[in-house]
Every structure is written in C-alpha cells, then in structure tokens.
Amino acid sequence: MENFTENASGNNSINCTINHGIHQTLSPVIYILVFVLGLPANCLSLYYGYLQIKAKNELGIYLCNLTVADLFYIFSLPFWLQYVLQQDNWPYNELLCKICGILLYENIYISVGFLCCISIDRYLAVVHPFRFHQFRTMKAAAVVSVVIWSKEFLTSWFVFKHGEVSKDAESHAVCFEHYPIKSWEHNLNFYRFFAGFFFPFFLLVFSYCGILQVVHKSHGTQKKKKIQIKRLVSSTVAIFLACFGPYHILLVIRSVFENNCTFAEKIFNIYHISLLLTTFNCVADPVLYCFSSENTHQDFVKMRDSCSACLKCLRTETKESYQLNIPENFRKSSGAHAEQEPGLLNNVHAVKKMKESSITSTD
C-alpha cells in the first residue's frame, strides 16, 4: 500500500474513535442489491436513451448522461464493498480512494443536474410548446451536458487537492471520512446543499407544478393519462426527496454542529444511512425516466412479440426437422398399418354381430 498524503493540517490521524459496525452489516447488503439491480436496469436505460438520440430527441442526451453517471458509480461499488468488508480499511492507494470517493459523491450532483434538465425540458414541452425552441434542440442539450460535467469536474479538482486517506485510532486506512469534519469541508458542504440540492429541488418543483396545472386544465387529455402523469410527477419528487433530502440535511447539521468527537459519534450511524439512501438513485432513475414512459412499454411489447415469434420459429423448425428425420421404412410400415386398420375393425364388428345373433336365436 502506498504512503498516504498528509492533510491540510499536517496530521493524518483521526482523534475520534468511531464504531463502524454499520458498515459491516447494512452497507454490504445495500451495495450488492444496488449493483445487482442497477447494472442491468441502467444498461437498458442507456439503450433506450440511445434510441431516443437516434430519433433526434434531445431528452435522450440527458437520459444517456444520467445513466452514464449512475454506471460510473455502480462500477465503483465493488471497491467500496471490499472496503467495508475489511473493517473500513482501504486496501488500495490514495489516488483510487479519491476516484471512488468522487464517483460516490459527485454522482449525486451529476444525477441531480440531469434530473433538473429533464424536468425543465418537460416543462418547456408541455407548458410552452410553441416557445423556447432553441433550448429544446440536440445542440443545446449537448452544451448543457458539457456544462454540468465541467462544473462537477471543477468541484472534484478542489477535493483532489486534499488527502482523503487517513489513519484512525486502530491504524485503519479510512477513505473519504473525517471525524470531526475538516475546516475546508464546511464551505464545500454549504455549497453542495444550496447549489447541489436546494436550488435544483426548487427548479424540479416549479417545473412539475407547471406541468400539473396545464394537465389539470387540459380537457382533451384523458383521465387515465392525467392520473399517470400525476403519479409520475409525484413519485419523481418523492424519490428525489427520499434519496437526496436526508443526506443534505445531515450534511448541513454536521457542518454547523460537528466540532467534537461526541457529536460525531452520535450522528455517525444516521449520517451513513442517509448516504446509503443516495445509492438507490441508481435504481430509481431508470424506472422513473425510462421504464415509465409509454414508448418504453411499446418497445417492451415489441421485444416480447419478437422473442415469442423467434421461439415459435424455433419450435416449428424443430418439429419439421424431427419429421424429416423419421426413417422411410417406418413411415411406409405405419402407412400400411393405417390402411389395414379399417379392414380389421370391420372384421371385429362382424364377429360381434354373429355372437349376438347366435345368442338371440338360442333364446
């Protein structure tokens, strides 16, 4: 294992003795569950985003970027799994710790950014369908995507300047955890809360409130379609709050009140539970923004029909090949037996009639 970089204070030891038991019990279960469910779901989501890009739909660019961000984090889960299973002892070098930590934390804000892009795109399409065409093009979506990734890379560069692997009281190499939090983390946490959560949440609520008002006033929209849109909007906001809300609230609480080990020990478990909730975003994104759309259901129906058609073709070919493989002698003999069967049946019926007539004559 390589030597770890000294932190800003020149001391790479952690004074607080924290019980990391939650990492050995709950975290492995969540990491494995998210990896097993999230990997195939996001692969399918990436495929459907690609289909929308081929159809010149700018929404596909946001979906693909959102899915790529989720996949990056999912690919880092095996490293975090090994980390927590080894009693929170990072087995690799500090560079890999920084990369995995950035994928873990910045995935939250990349996902939030593209969720906002999707909500604003839908807002403009529903509320202002004949205006702002220049913001709903493939080129505009590509530019916005570059801006979001660049913003997060700049934030990651600030994190890269600090050492992220330190030693705890048990001489374990702890990755991306400081107790109590460092002085440079306070401003970063407030920036994450306001720019990475609160403002995007305001945009999300504003966009979907406008969509719901237009759908409610629309008389041409079917009642079933209105219910579907309302459920999708409400579930989006609910999942956004459930995945990202607790973590950012506790992030602010730590930045304000965590200045000693006693508070850090009290908040450790609930803070890490909120951090685990953010990982479910990788599973929720494909379900909400890909699998809930009407076009996706039609694509699934097409896939099902094509698969069933292929199965029928395979069965037909199997039967035909089986019939062709029947020996010629066997088919001739079976045909001869079939021709002889009517005569044999007639002889049996004649014998029965003779017995019946003889019985009646004796009576």
UniProtKB/TrEMBL annotation:
Q: List, alphabetically, the GO terms of the cellular component aspect.
A: plasma membrane
GO MF term set: G protein-coupled receptor activity
User: By its UniProt entry, which SUPFAM superfamilies does this protein fall under?
Assistant: Family A G protein-coupled receptor-like
The answer, when asked if Membrane is one of the entry's keywords, is yes
G-protein coupled receptors family 1 profile domain segment(s) = 41-289
- UniProt membrane topology term: Multi-pass membrane protein
On whether Cytoplasm is a keyword of this UniProt record, the answer is: no
Entry's Gene3D superfamilies?
Rhodopsin 7-helix transmembrane proteins (1.20.1070.10)
A GO biological process of this protein is: cellular response to acidic pH
Q: Which InterPro entries match?
A: GPCR_Rhodpsn, GPCR_Rhodpsn_7TM, OGR1_rcpt
Q: Where in the cell is it found?
A: Cell membrane
Q: Name one Pfam family in it.
A: 7tm_1
Q: Where are the transmembrane segments?
A: 29-50, 62-81, 101-120, 140-160, 190-211, 232-253
Q: Which UniProt keywords apply?
A: Cell membrane, Disulfide bond, G-protein coupled receptor, Glycoprotein, Membrane, Receptor, Transducer, Transmembrane, Transmembrane helix
Task: Please report which protein family the annotation says this sequence is part of.
Answer: Belongs to the G-protein coupled receptor 1 family.
Recorded protein name is: G protein-coupled receptor 68
According to its UniProt entry, this protein's organism is Crocodylus porosus (Saltwater crocodile)
